[in-house]
Amino acid sequence: MYSEILKIIEGGISHDKQKVINYSKRLAEYLIKDGQKNVGNKINKLIAENNTSLTTLDGLSSKPFDKDTKVDMVDIFIPTESKESLIFNEIVENEVLDFINSYLNRDKLIMAGIDFNNHLLLYGKPGTGKTSLAKFISLQTGLPLITARLDGIVSSLLGSTAKNIRKVFDYASQRPCILFLDEFDVLAKIRDDKNELGELKRVVNSLLQNMDNFNEDSILIAATNHEKLLDEAVWRRFDKIIKLDLPDKKLRKDLIL
């Protein structure tokens, strides 16, 4: 709740009307859930009375696109009520639920002086459920899932990929959300690869800077099938790292039934 207030103030100072609206709505949601319905409803009423035209997809503006190819750089999944359950082994399930619980109670953790990290790295073989897990976290937190599209981000033009990464992070900063970077190794590859040009270093440096400045009210999830290709500095950005294995016989049965 306190973080939402700070974001509203930031938006007001920078004259970012959409940011004020998005975080005011978020604050109203928290207040209503906390039993302070009168205050929450008053905030919603103020937004409505000012005839604020909401942008597409619940506070998210038009999707960013690569200016040369015109390809969208993100896809968006809006969570709805779902009975979808988490089917992983017990260790993974506990790790995921702990991460979700920490996010939902981040204000309490911050007030208690406990560090909260909203960066989650998933790695494992193809077909282990990394994308499904990102959607599950979206459903559990109520945050829209913004999936970065590599065909829109990665450019053959010098310097364009780093700029596109910045655009995606700027877009994700408009409101609380989950930014999902699938095939993460493409953007976060080891910088001492002799087969790569200097452009790779610019891309990884841009990625690291944006990760460091990522909105604390949002969640960053990265996923890769090739964790050994990741730059060493990238690993240090994640407090929560989860390895996903292919399901055993029991889990496969649970998935079917």
Your description of this structure?
The protein folds into two domains: 53 residues, no CATH class; 200 residues, Rossmann fold, CATH 3.40.50. Strands 1-3-4-5-2-6 form a six-stranded mixed sheet, sandwiched between helices. The chain is 48% helix and 11% strand. About 3% of the residues have low confidence. Helix 1 runs antiparallel to helix 2. With 257 residues, the chain is α/β, with parallel strands linked by helices. Belongs to the AAA ATPase family.
Give the helix/strand layout:
Layout: H1 2-13, H2 17-33, H3 37-49, H4 56-59, E1 74-77, H5 90-104, H6 106-111, E2 119-124, H7 130-141, E3 145-148, H8 150-153, H9 160-172, E4 178-181, H10 198-212, E5 219-224, H11 232-235, E6 240-244, H12 249-256
Parallel strand pairs: 2-5, 2-6, 3-4, 4-5
Antiparallel strand pairs: 1-3
Helix pairs in contact: 1-2, 2-3, 9-10
Comma- or semicolon-separated keywords:
single chain; 257 residues; alpha/beta; Rossmann fold; 2 domains; 6-stranded mixed sheet; 12 helices; 48% helix; 11% strand; globular
Beta-strand segment tally:
6
* Overall domain count: 2
Element order: H for helix, E for strand: HHHHEHHEHEHHEHEHEH
- Average of pLDDT: 84
Q: Give the % helix.
A: 40-55%
- Overall shape: it is globular
Q: From the 3D coordinates, which CATH architecture of the largest domain would you assign?
A: 3-Layer(aba) Sandwich
Q: Count helical runs.
A: 12
Work out the radius of gyration: 19 Å
At the fold tier of CATH, the topology name of the largest domain is Rossmann fold
By CATH's scheme, which homologous superfamily of the largest domain applies?
A: P-loop containing nucleotide triphosphate hydrolases
Q: What oligomeric state is this?
A: single chain
**In order across it, which strands form the biggest sheet?**
1-3-4-5-2-6
Q: Biggest sheet: strands, sense, closure?
A: 6 strands, mixed
Task: Give the termini separation.
Answer: 40 Å
**How much beta, percentage-wise?**
5-15%
Text of the CATH class of the largest domain: Alpha Beta
Stretches where pLDDT is under 50 for at least 5 consecutive residues are 51-58
> What structural class do the secondary elements suggest?
alpha/beta
